[in-house]
Specification:
Length: 285
């Protein structure tokens, strides 16, 4: 049996993605093979393709952080899985493929009847948002939060989970996404045409309790300014490095899995020496 998958042969823009056809992988002992029904497409995939995500695999590799699929074949000594069962996994790479083999402990069962494209959003994006709200910021009902990129893959789960947690939400987004952000329960702030720090202080008075910042760079200092005393910026990405889905700088492409995280770490370190009781904490799933 044959299948197709996407591969990245060198780091760079979307043109480095290639479709190949090859023999279907066979599950080894302890592995389960799934037929992929849905694979998540996320900004971390783009950052890895550019070679700058901390989890960037060595080329050639297949992108795709997460999947929902149907168990199709079972390797020797596997127990607890059966063909036809719907499962999810987050191997970090490899999911842009028709068939994927992984060790059985990588899979969790998915309840029957869910739309696979909706279920796969839970694996990376919702867990990321949930852990940051619950563990990194430890938000309490009635607190105020600012979510950057509120209409995005991680931003929309933030809004849905933040509403359930009963927090007051503000979300930066472009003007065309304002309606979606409002429908999901937040006050939209157009980051392209207004100053979000001024807007937050105009709307709240003394600022927010937590900011979730996947933008990085000097945006982190602005996020800090939007905090009230005792507040916290959760740092979880460096989207500012991208422009139109490509690295904004013309630095030579290659595998640099530590560079951008080290730069974020440098911001977090410098925060300690800034005036005010405002913390910055990193988050990685
Ligand atoms: N640390 C972790 O474990 C972890 C896990 C998952 C994701 N991430 C990070 O999370 C971030 C978002 O990923 P994603 O997959 O959700 O991306 P996405 O779906 O592309 O969403 C990003 C959103 O950010 C908005 N945006 C762009 N520049 C902005 C700015 N300067 N200010 C405010 N909003 C801006 C975009 O809105 P417009 O297009 O409307 O401008 C877009 O809606 C990335 O940095 C990613 O690496 C981290």
């Amino acid at each position: 049996m044959r299948h197709t998958r996407i591969i990245v042969t060198h780091y760079g823009g979307p043109d480095v993605l290639q479709v190949i056809e090859e023999a279907c992988p066979e599950p080894k002992s302890g592995e389960v093979r799934v037929r992929v029904l849905a694979a998540g497409v996320s900004l971390p995939d783009v950052l890895a393709r550019e070679g700058v995500h901390p989890e960037t695999p060595r080329v050639p590799y297949t992108p795709g952080w997460d999947l929902v699929g149907i168990v199709d074949q079972i390797g020797e000594s596997v127990s607890g899985f059966e063909p036809g069962q719907t499962v999810a996994a987050m191997p970090i790479s490899g999911c842009y493929a028709q068939y994927v083999c992984l060790p059985q402990h990588k899979f969790i069962p998915v309840p029957a009847g869910l739309d696979p494209a909706e279920a796969v959003a839970v694996v990376l994006n919702y867990i990321t948002a949930h852990q940051m709200l619950d563990r990194s910021a430890k938000v309490k009902p009635g607190q105020r939060v600012l979510i950057h990129g509120a209409s995005g893959g991680v931003g929309t789960p933030f809004l849905q989970l933040g509403r359930l947690a009963d927090v007051e939400m503000y979300g930066t987004c472009s003007a065309q996404a304002a309606e979606v952000v409002k429908e999901l329960g937040a006050t939209p702030i157009d980051y392209r045409n207004s100053d979000f720090v001024q807007e937050i202080h105009r709307l709240t008075g003394d600022g927010v309790d937590a900011v979730f910042d996947g933008i990085g760079g000097d945006n982190l200092w602005r996020s800090r300014e939007a905090l009230r005393e005792g507040g916290r910026v959760v740092v979880y990405g460096f989207q500012a490095k991208l422009h139109g889905g490509r690295m904004a700088s013309d630095a030579p492409s290659g595998r640099h899995p530590i560079r951008e995280s080290a730069i974020l770490g440098w911001y977090i370190l410098r925060n300690w020496f800034r005036a005010g009781r405002k913390s910055m904490v990193p988050y990685s799933i």
